[in-house]
Design a protein that fits this description.
Keywords: Signal. Residues 1-21 form the signal peptide. The protein is an alpha+beta fold. The chain has one domain: Alpha-D-Glucose-1,6-Bisphosphate, Chain A, domain 4 (2-Layer Sandwich), CATH 3.30.530.80. Helix content is 25%, strand content 38%. It has helices at residues 6-21, 51-65, 178-196; strands at residues 31-34, 37-46, 71-75, 80-81, 88-89, 93-97, 103-107, 112-123, 129-141, 145-157, 159-160, 168-169. The strands form three sheets. Strands 1, 2, 7, 8, 9, 10 and 12 form a seven-stranded antiparallel β-sheet that branches. Helix 2 (51-65) crosses helix 3.
Length: 198
């Protein structure tokens, strides 16, 4: 049996914890941060339609792109190895989280719509994993562009080895999963933008 000196490992543990808490360099300028957590992510995309037509088209494009379906989260709590057989018995616990009405507000006169959305994506950061994102989205139609702002942004792993059905705020430190979540929001914005000009 190999004996490990716990005190000898302390500097490495401290170093890894410090590395995980260091803020990502060069955050995109469209990201607002409060206490190392993402507050909002704002995008804009052009359109060349008259205001009323732009609003109706934007509502269609947003509805085709954004969904607010519930997310299935799996955890492996209760998994165990048989004492005599050595067989691994998997306990696949599934929890359905979120979902509900998509549009929270639609005001054509103001040119504003507010939605609740969820999306699923593959985070290829430190460890490749399936993740889910929950957010509020505000889409505002202006004279020649649509402004898309994500807020209340939370995320979670879809498959974990522990009991968890909670979404956590999106952080901006290394290993927080920021890059994957940001790419997912950018992907959604690009789909809406492409729909508006086709």
């Amino acid at each position: 049996m190999i004996k490990v000196n716990r005190l000898a490992l302390a500097p490495f543990i401290l170093l890894s914890m410090t590395a995980c808490q260091s803020t990502i360099a060069n955050l995109p300028s469209n990201v607002e941060v409060v206490n190392k957590y993402v507050d909002t992510v704002a995008f804009s995309a052009p359109h060349d339609h008259e205001a009323k037509k732009a609003f109706k088209l934007a509502r269609l494009c947003v509805a085709e792109t954004i969904s607010n379906e519930s997310v299935i989260i799996n955890d492996a709590t209760g998994t165990f190895v048989g004492a005599f057989s050595g067989t691994v018995y998997h306990a696949n616990n599934k929890t359905s989280v979120g979902g509900g009405q998509l549009f929270q507000l639609v005001d054509e006169e103001l040119g504003v719509m507010i939605l609740r959305g969820t999306s699923e994506y593959i985070d290829t950061g430190m460890l490749k994993s399936e993740k889910a994102l929950k957010y509020k989205l505000k889409a505002s139609i202006k004279e020649n562009n649509i402004q898309i702002k994500f807020s209340d942004i939370t995320h979670t792993m879809k498959n974990s080895g522990y009991a968890s059905n909670s979404f956590n705020k999106l952080g901006t430190w290394s290993g927080s999963g920021f890059e994957g979540a940001y790419s997912n929001m950018q992907y959604l914005k690009n789909k809406i933008a492409k729909c508006l000009i086709t």
